[in-house]
Amino acid sequence: MEFISIDYSSSDGSDTESESVDEVEAQVENAEKSNIEEAGCTDLPAIPDSVISKYHITPNLQKYELQDMHIGRFWRSFTYFEWRPTPAIRRQLQQIICEYKETFMKQEYTNLSQLPDFDPLFISHLGAPKPLHISLTRSLLFETEEQRQTFIHEIHNGLQNHRISPFTLEICPYPKLYISEQANTLYLGLPVSGRCNRTHLSPFQTIIGEALQKSRIPDYQELIVNLHSLHISIAVASKASQVTLKRYQQLNETMGALMLLNNKSAYQLELFVNSINCDENRHSIKIPFT
Amino acid sequence: MDSMNKATVNIDENIRNDADVAFEYEIQKTPQNILTWKRYLEYWKEEGRVDEQIRWLYERFCSQFLTDTSIWEDYIRWETTREVVKTSRIFSLFQRCLNSCVHDCDRVCLSYLELAIEQHDLTMIRHALDLSLIRLEGGMHSKVWESVLHFLEEKVLPLTQLDSTQEYDEENIDEADLVNILLVKGLAKVGFISEEPSGIESRCDIWSSQLLERYLRVAPQQRQHELLNILAKTRDNATIKPIYEKYLMRDEKREIYLPSSKLTFALNFNYLIVLEKLDLDNQYEEFMNQMNVMYAENWVFLTLSLAKYYISRGRLDSCGDLLDKSLRQTLNFSDFDRIYSFYLLFEQQCSQFILEKLENELFDQRNWTKKLEHHMATFESLINLHDIYLNDVALRQDSNLVETWMKRVSLQKTSAEKCHIYSEAILKIDPRKVTTPGSFGRLWCLYGDLYWNTNATSTARELWAQSLKVPYPYIKDLEEIYLNWAERELSKEGVERAVSVLEDALSIPMNPDALLEKFNNGQKKVPAQTVVFNSLRIWCKYIDFLEAFCPKDANSSNKIYNKIKTAYNNVIDLRLITPAMVENFALFLQNHHEVVESFQVYEKTIPLFPPEIQYELWIEYLEVATSPKLTLLSPEHIRFIFEKALESLCSHGIDCKNIFIAYSALEEKVSGLVGKSIEILHRGAVSVSTHLESRLQLWGMCISRAQSTLGPSIARELYQECIQVLPNSKAVAFVIEFSDFESSMGEIIRAREILTYGAKLLPPSRNTELWNNFEVFELKHGDKETYKEMLKMKKILDSDMVIDSESVSQREGNINFVAATTNRVNSHDITPSNATQSVNPDEIELDI
Questions:
Q1: ipTM value of the model?
Q2: Which of the residues A264, B151, B523, B643 has the least number of beta carbons within 10 Å of its own beta carbon?
C-alpha cells in the first residue's frame, strides 16, 4: 500500500473532466487511430522537446483567483524523469487500465458504483498526448530564486560528479494504486522494478539529497521519493469518496496478486532514461546525462 | 667682389657724359648717400640706358648697401618689370638679398615664396621656405607655412591622387573594378597568377610628406589632426607611419600600436591603410580588431575594408567567412544592403576571375576548380536566400514580431521546413513581448494545422494542448487557438469533440469578477487563461455549434438543449450578451415552445443595454407578447409589459410613439374600451419624452378618435389642450381643424373665436393657411362687418407682429441667435394669448 502526500506532483490535478470509462477508451482509441494514421506520414518532424519543455506547466489560475498575487510566493521546482510514450505504448497502457478495472470488477464484493472513473494521464481530455513521469522528489518550495538556482546547478554538478550515463529502466507491468487521501484522489501507477532501484536509481537519491542540502532546504530527506515508491502514474481518479478510497486501500494488495496470478499485463515496459528534468517557473529544464 | 671688379671693368663703357661723371664724383665723395644713388639710377632710367647698364649700377648700389633690404627690393622690383624676365635671376637676387640682409626681410621673404609658388618650383619653394624661416620672426612663420600648405593641398597632392599609375582610388573607382584589381593583386600574391598586377610601383609624394613632417613639429595643436590627414594623402607610408605612431597608443608588451581615442576615426583608419600598404599584416589585423572594438558604429565600413584587405592578400576564404558572419550580424537594412551587395559582388567577381584564369592557364586546376564551385555555390545561395537574409535582419531587430516569423514560414518550400521555423519561433518568442494580440496564438494554430492537414491529428492536438500553457497577455491568442482547434475537431471528429474543446475554455471560475479585475490591472503579467471564460467569440462559436446540432423538437430533457440554455445564461451573467444574442436566445426558446421563458430573457437582458437598444428589444418583446400565434397572455399581463416598457423607456427620453399606438390599439382590441385607448394616445401626446412630430401624430390620432367616438365635448377639451401645449407654429393646424369642427357643429361664433385666437399665434405672413381659412370662413358664415373686422385685425397684426430683427441687432451690438420676439406696441386691442405666452416662450421657429 502506497500513500502519497497532498503535494504529490505526479499528475495534473486540474484534469477534473469526468468521462465514463467507455468515453475515455473511445478517446484513446481515437487518438491511437490518429497515431496509426500518423505513422504513415513521416515527412514532418516530431515536436521538439524544447518546445514541450518551454511551456511545460499550465498557468496556475488558482493563484490569481484565490489569493493575492504577491503574498506567500515560493519558487517551485520538481525533479523527475520524463517519458513521452509512443502511440503503441499508449495503447498498452490503456490495456493495463482496462485489465485492472476488469479484475477489480470480478471481485464479489465490488459493485459498479464503487468503481471511480480513471482518466488516463497520458492523454488529455481533449485527446492530446501528454508526457508521463517518474517523480524523484515531491513538489519543492524554495524561499528564494537563488536557492532554486543552486539546487538545479547542484543537480548538474552531481550528475557530472557521479558520471551518470543513460540507462534503461524496467517498469513493472502490474499496476498499483497510489492514494492521496487529502486530495481524495487515486492514482493508478506502474512501480519501477526493484532491480533497477539498486543498480541505477540510488545515485540519484544522493545527488538530489546533496543538491537540496546545498540549497539549504530543511528536512530535505522527506522531499525525496523513496526508492521503493518510485512509479509512473498512468491514470487518475479524482474526487473519489472516502468509502471508495478505503475499499481500494483494502484491495490494493489483492489486486496486484490477482493480476499476477492471472498473468495479465505481462507486457514489460522499458524506459530509456538519458536525462533528468527539473521544473523552473513555467518550463522544464532537461539535464542530459553525459 | 666680382661685381666690384665688373663695375671697375665696365666703368668706362658706362660713364658716358658729364652728368654721369658728376654722379660718379658725388658717390665717390659721399658713398653712403642713398639719395645720390637713387637720383643716379633715376637719371639713367630716364636716359633710357640699357638694362645691363642699370643692372651694373644696381649691383654697385646693392654692394654699397649690402644689408639694406629696401635697395634689394627696389632692384628685384625693377628686374621683374623687364621685358624678358629671367626667374632664375630674380630667385638669385632674392637669395643674395636674404643671405646678406638680416633685418626687415618680411616682404622679401614673402615675395620670394610667392614667386616660387607661382612658378610651381618645388626646389625654390623649399629654399624660400627655409630662408624665410631663418630670416623671419616666429610670429610670421605660420603665414609662410600657410602659403606652402595651401600650394601643397591645391597643386601638389591632387597630382598624386590623380596619378593613373597610382594604386586604386577607392573613392572613385567602380567597386567591381576595385574587387578585380584586389583579386589580381591577391591571387598573384598566393601564386595563382604569375604576373604582377600593374608593373609600376606605387608613387608617393615625398616632397609634401617631408614638409608636413617638419611643420607638424611646430604646428599649433589645433591643426595637428588636419595636418595628419593631409599627410596621409601623400601616401608616403614609410614617413607617415612613424609620424602617426607618435599620436597612437602603444602596447609596450606586445610592441604594437593601438588606435587612439584622441584621434578621429578617419585618422586611425589612415594608419590602418598605411599598415596595409606596408604589408604589415599582423599589425594591420590587430589594429583592425581594436578599431572594431573602439568604433562599433563604423563596423560595416571596417568589415568591408577588412574584406578588401583579405582579397588583396589572396585570402578569399577568410573574406567569405567574414562577409558571411557579418551578414548574419546586421541589425538594420542599410547595413545589410551594403554587406550583402559587396558579398554578392565578391562571389561574382571571384567566380568570373577564377573561371577566366582556369580557361586560359593551367594552375593547380583541381584545387581551383573546387574553389570556383564553392564561390559559384555561395553566389547562387546568396541570391536564393536573399529574402531569408532580410527576414533574419527583421528578426534580429525584433524576434518577438510574429508577423516576421510568419513571413519566414512563407519563404519555406516544404512543410518540414515550415515546422522547423514554427518551432524556432516558439522557442524565441517571448509571449509577453508580442505586440499584436492574437498573432502568437495564430502561429501555434498554423503550426498544428500542418500536422492536422497531414492526418497527424494527435501531434496537432499535442501542440495545441501545449499552446494553451503559454502565458499570453492577450485573450485573443487563446481565442485563436480554441476556435481553430474546435473547427478542426468539428470537421474531423464531429460536434461533441468540438464542443468539448470550447468547454475547456468556457469553464467559469468561482470568482470571475476578481479574475477579470486582476487581468485588466495586471499589465500583461496575468495570463489570459484567467479570463478566457469571458471570451464572447468563444461563447458565440460554442452556442453556434450547439444550436446547429440541436434537434428541432429538443426540450429540457435534451443534453444539447440544456447546454445551449446554460451557455446563454452564462453569457448573460457574464454581461457579454449582445442584442443579437438576446434575439437568438429568445427565438431559440420560442422555437422550442418556451415562449414565457423567452420573456424572462428579454426582461433580464434589456436593462443591460443602452436606451436605444432597449427600445428595439422592447418592440421585439412586445411583438412576441402580443402575437396570438406565440402566446395567449392575459390582458393584464400584456398591459403590465406595455406599462413596464413605457416606464423604462420614457424615463430615458426615448420616443415611444409606436408603443403608445400599439398599446392603444391593443387596449381597444382586447377590452373594447375606447376611452382607455384614447387616454393612452393622450399620454403619449403629452409625454415629454415623445418627439414633436410623434406628438403631432398622436394628438391627431387622439382627437380624431375622440371626435368619432366620444363626442364633441371631449373633442373640444382635447383640441383646447392640444392647441395650448403645442408650439404656436404646430398648433395652427389644430386651430383650423378645431374651427372646422365647431363650424360643422353650427357653432359659428366659437369657430370665429378659435380662428381669431389662432390668428394671433403667428404673424400673418407666416400664418397664411389660417388666414385663407379665415377668409373662406367669413365669406361662408360672416357678413360685411365681420369680414372687415377680420381684415382690420390682420392689418394690425401685420404691423404689430413684425419681428424687429434690425432693432435687436442694434441693441445687442451684433447679430445673435435670439428668441423670436414680436412687437406688441399696439396690442391693447388684441388680447395676448395665454397659451402663446405660457407655452415655450423661447421657441425657435425653424420653419424649414
A1: 0.82
A2: B523
